[in-house]
Amino acid sequence: MNDLFTPWLLWLLAGVTLALLELAVPGFILIFFGAGCLVVALCLLVLDLTLTQQLWLFLIATLVSLIGLRRFAMRIFAGEQAVNPVDQLLDEPHGTARVVQAIRPPVPGRVAWRGSFWDAQAEEDFEVDALVAVRGYAEGSRSQLQVEALPAAAVSAQDH
């Protein structure tokens, strides 16, 4: 039974657990702690390390992987950004959004815009999946968008 709880196996289980937790937690950080655990597990298969040495090795391996690989891995796994980063610095939002919860004035609905869901109000009704133009924030709010129908030219261009 003691063979089940050898230090290398505990480090291996910790590394795999942290790597799997990365799938559920945003931020792309836990995978590097998992890599540090795996390095310690591999070293324990070859070397007899004290707990202090294991902790130092974990710390160093984690920092080296985090500093050395995070930027590289973010380029691979982050994907492409469809929005010009300069546009995100603008004070007033604009662009095209998709309605995910019907908008029935005066009751606001919800839209998907730039990778997030926003409350949105309009002066006319919009059904789910309709494309709308974002015209800024709703009056007196920084968390609700004002939307309106897309211009006819934009709608026909998106149909083709």
TrEMBL record:
Transmembrane segments: 29-47, 54-73
UniProt keyword terms in alphabetical order: Hydrolase, Membrane, Protease, Transmembrane, Transmembrane helix
Top-level taxon in the UniProt lineage: Bacteria
Gene Ontology process terms (BP): proteolysis
GO cellular component: plasma membrane
Keyword Transport in annotation: no
GO MF entries: peptidase activity
UniProt keyword annotation of Transmembrane present: yes
PANTHER family associated with the record: INNER MEMBRANE PROTEIN YBBJ (PTHR33507:SF3)
UniProt-recorded name of the protein: Membrane protein implicated in regulation of membrane protease activity
Organism, scientific name: Desulfuromonas thiophila
